[in-house]
Amino acid sequence: MSPLFSLFLLHIIVSAAGAQLRPHYYSESCPKAEAVVRHVMKKALIREPRSLASVMRFQFHDCFVNGCDASLLLDDTPTMLGEKLALANINSLRSYEVVDEVKETLEKVCPGIVSCADIIIMASKDAVALTGGPDWEVKLGRLDSLSASQEASDNVMPSPRANASFLVDLFGKFNLSVKDLVALSGSHSIGQGRCFSIMFRLYNQSGTGRPDPVFDPKFRGKLNKLCPLNVDQNVTGDLDATPVVFDNQYFKDLVAGRGFLNSDQTLFTFPETRAFVQLFSRDQHEFFKAFVEGMIKMGDLQVDQQGEVRRNCRVVNSRLL
């Protein structure tokens, strides 16, 4: 990691401390804002349950890159490579249309008031609450960025191959603790992952030409059938045994050697993170409490930059004129 990038991360952390975010930010300017977001997310759940997991991930992939500013949602332009085609996002992030629907609805209710960055925060929280997880009060008042950076996303977002040591260091640079890391990894309690992300675990872990020895044998057999060597690597599998319910099953699966991604299973094999995996596997309340704390801390990440409230989350306002 370059010294310049390390300084950039520090800048995010310092800026977050002075962020003027607060609950009920839209209580006067758009009092129905949070209710509108929840209503659209309920409709999305009925249409396609998996879409809620997809929308929840937007907070992670947005806030870690230049802070929580909805840069993730900007489409490419002739002069800007955005983040949608970054390595961690291409063929992986989906359900952008749900955010579009939220924004279109809010623009009818209170035009030009609610930022796309705040929509991501509210929708991520609703995705968790509507699938059985905790609910919490979010802080709002963010502005939307005027640009995006594919390079910045590639430099920050971890690979599914990442090990726990790397993840601990990365989260630490954002002032997120080991406990935050493990709890936030529990976002994989809902949703699916691609065969692309696990082929090396199944057939060539660490260049050995063999599967990851940590796999539970029956689970590995199941994944071998889902993801044979000749598979379309965009085929998806469940990230845990209850993929449409937000619960602590994810951690129980890690303890049993049934983690889907390497970056998940490594949390149990690494001594510094194992104790939290064990705790959360036993106590769902503790997991929920730690997850909320982590989401709030992540939502505080910002940088000092110009911003606006976009009328269309995919395009800066100047390009709509």
TrEMBL record:
Disulfide bonds: 30-110, 63-68, 116-313, 195-227
Enzyme category, top tier: oxidoreductase
Active site per the UniProt annotation: 61
Residues that hold Ca(2+) 2 according to the record: 240, 242, 247
Signal peptide boundaries: 1-19
InterPro entries listed in its UniProt record: Haem_peroxidase, Haem_peroxidase_sf, Peroxidase_pln, Peroxidases_heam-ligand_BS, Secretory_peroxidase
Highest taxon, organism lineage: Eukaryota
Substrates-to-products reaction catalysed: 2 a phenolic donor + H2O2 = 2 a phenolic radical donor + 2 H2O
Pfam families the UniProt entry points to: peroxidase
Residues bound to Ca(2+) 1: 62, 65, 67, 69, 71, 83
Domain Plant heme peroxidase family profile span(s) in chain numbering: 20-317
GO molecular function: heme binding; lactoperoxidase activity; metal ion binding; peroxidase activity
Protein family (similarity comment): Belongs to the peroxidase family. Classical plant (class III) peroxidase subfamily.
Descriptive protein name: Peroxidase
Source organism of this protein record: Prunus persica
